[in-house]
Design goal:
34% of the residues lie in helices and 17% in strands. It is α/β, with parallel strands linked by helices. Strand 1 and strand 2 form a beta hairpin. The longest helix is centred in the last third of the chain and has 15 residues.
Length: 146
């Protein structure tokens, strides 16, 4: 089951973390596996894999190993969304659609829905964009090798 928490770092301030767990076979936890297999790689690849060791250190308030491994910050992930994914799924049928406002960029409207064809993957991609908008680092923790 995914988890979320916050860590205070003297240099970076409050880090908000959303954790998805990876199993030994490389699949993600049940809630997020449909996203991993159904969403385009351009958005899946923006979720940062983090070693169990860095995650363990982070849980014990040592942020340096985590920050060394994590990819883009949440705003960076939003800016890297591919053009097709960043536009709202309902852009062709929505009477209020405005391409300047309705993309997945830094501040999409609350009604934004990610443009992903698979329904389950779209719901999760939209959740992911919402997490990034709220400032969460979304990470996939690799299995513990110990």
């Amino acid at each position: 089951m995914s988890a979320q928490f916050q860590i205070e770092d003297p240099m970076w301030g409050t880090l908000s973390i959303f954790v998805i767990r990876m199993s030994e076979d490389g699949s993600w936890e049940d809630d997020w596996e449909p996203f991993r297999v159904g969403a385009p790689p351009e958005i899946v690849d923006l979720v940062s894999p983090v070693s169990y060791e860095a995650y363990f250190e982070l849980k014990h308030r040592h942020t340096r190993p985590f920050l060394a491994e994590v990819g883009l910050d949440p705003k960076g992930c939003l800016t890297k969304l591919a053009e097709g994914i960043s536009m709202c799924h309902y852009r062709t049928s929505c009477p209020s659609y405005d391409p300047k406002l309705c993309g997945g960029h830094l501040d999409p409207p609350p009604c934004y829905d990610a443009s992903v064809s698979d329904d389950a993957a779209r719901r999760l991609a939209t959740r992911l964009v919402d997490l990034w908008r709220m400032g969460f680092y979304v990470i996939v923790v690799e299995p513990d090798d110990l």
